[in-house]
Design brief:
The chain is built from 5 helices and 4 strands. It has a 4-stranded antiparallel β-sheet with strand order 2-3-1-4, covered by helices on one side. The chain has helices spanning 2-36, 51-68, 96-102, 106-114, 132-144; strands at 38-46, 72-79, 86-93, 119-127. Helix 1 crosses helix 5 (132-144). The protein is α+β, with helices and mostly antiparallel strands. It has a domain at 38-128: Alpha-Beta Plaits (2-Layer Sandwich), CATH 3.30.70.100. This is ABM domain-containing protein. Residues 38-131 form the ABM domain. Keywords: Membrane, Transmembrane, Transmembrane helix. It comes from Persicitalea jodogahamensis.
Length: 146
């Protein structure tokens, strides 16, 4: 009986090991996909007189980007509570190529050509994830909330 239990334990260990080995390529591909993503934060200061007009244009651009561009994972505009002219946009693209394609779209061209006089300052900050695997969990959680 003990021999059978030992045998079952060894078989179980081998099966678990084989399962892990079988999943490794998928895990590797997922991690590699995460490292190819482009993440940026745009730090923008808006001229106060144009704030509402700017926000309207930005909302339209962000919505069109998410709806029409498969390579745009997130464009999430927000503003500082204590200084509403300080806009921040979290941008996540599937790749650098997706970002470059985004720059050529009609909705981005419209945004870029209609807002320069509204922007007091602009700084684009490229970011790297501290823990790319956690980003996957965030997106999975968003899917579960639907």
């Amino acid at each position: 009986m003990e021999q059978m239990a030992g045998f079952k334990s060894k078989v179980h260990s081998i099966l678990v090991f084989q399962l892990i080995m079988a999943l490794m390529p998928a895990v590797y591909q997922t991690v590699m996909a995460q490292t190819q993503r482009m993440v940026r934060i745009a730090e923008i200061e808006i001229v106060p007189a144009y704030l509402e007009e700017y926000k309207t244009i930005l909302e339209a651009e962000a919505a069109a980007s998410l709806k029409l561009e498969p390579g745009v994972i997130a464009i999430f505009p927000m503003y500082q509570k204590e200084n509403t002219t300080q806009i921040r946009i979290l941008e996540i693209y599937a790749s650098k190529t997706a970002y470059e394609q985004h720059l050529k779209t009609p909705h981005f061209e419209k945004y870029k050509t209609t807002t320069p006089h509204m922007v007091k300052s602009l700084k684009l900050v490229d970011m790297e994830a501290v823990d790319a695997a956690t980003m996957l969990l965030m997106f999975k959680k968003l899917q579960e909330d639907k």
